[in-house]
Amino acid sequence: MPRSLSRGLEVLTSLNAIESAGVADLLKVLRLPRASLYRILETLCADGFVERGRSDHRYRLTAKVRRLSEGFSDDHYLAAVARPELIAVTRMLRWPVSLGMLAGTDIVVRASTDEQSPLAADRFSVGYRMPVLTTATGLCVLAHLERARLETLLDQLSRGASRAPLTVRERATLDVRLRDIRARGFCILDRRRQTTDATSIAVPVMDEVGVVRGAVTLRFAKAAVSLPAATAAFVPVLRDAAHRIAAGGRDPRR
Fold first, then answer.
1. Residue 6 CA: distances (Å) to CA of 66, 99, 152, 162
2. What would the pLDDT profile of 155-164 be if each residue is shown by its tens digit?
């Protein structure tokens, strides 16, 4: 990043934190040369991101700064919070981990450590979509949805609004399965991947009022770790990560 851009962002960040400031206040926080700070402030004022009060000569952000975050949704924010947590899990356990979130009748990968994991046999990039019923992430999210939203989604799936629709017989079985997942607090699913048989373990990410935001899911080779050993070793780590993601996942702009 060019140094002038980096310094400009530092000024915006500081003004966002302290709301209004004089040059002397900013110099204490930023430790920039006075001449450099003046040039940056003049540029930001000229571009409309910062304004200088006529009476107090203090600098403040303008409403134009909001444009910098347009398109940055709650899902994007949660993914940004999740990335370092997922990387920490992969460094500890070596297996690939992802954050998946519900989008219509699909699960979308919002963050992933497939590139960082030495054990990722298959790679699923951010933005990859999967039918909700075919993944541990999706079943985990469904199991923790509030009842009215779950019924609406299941009705959509029953009407064929998915690449993996839900039949009447499957719905009855699914209800039992979702109750079991909710009772355990995590979901386990065996699935044939592109190159190997894998098992996925998913735990929910729940916000402060108990609404499920997504699920953290770890994939491991079925032949490499027994299911009891994987459950004992992986579930506590995934739960801790999910709790930290949820704790940091409330958008401070709200």
1. 18, 30, 47, 45
2. 888 877 566 6
212: enclosing H helix or E strand? strand 212-221
Amino acid type, 229: A
Q: 214 burial class (0-12, 13-18, 19+ CB within 10 angstroms)?
A: buried
Query: CA nearest 134: which of 230, 213, 200, 203?
Result: 200
pTM surpassing 0.70? yes
CB atoms within 10 A of CB 74: 15
Q: Which one, of 189, 195, 177, 193, lies nearest residue 215 by Cα?
A: 189
- Ramachandran angles phi, psi of 36, nearest 5°: -65, -40
Buried b (16+ CB within 10 A) or exposed e, 25-60: ebeeebebeeeebeebbeebeeeebbbbeeeeebbe
User: Which DSSP state fits 64?
Assistant: G
**Dihedral sign, Cα of residue 67, residue 71, residue 75, residue 78:** negative
Greatest extent of the chain over all pairs of C-alpha atoms, in Å: 73
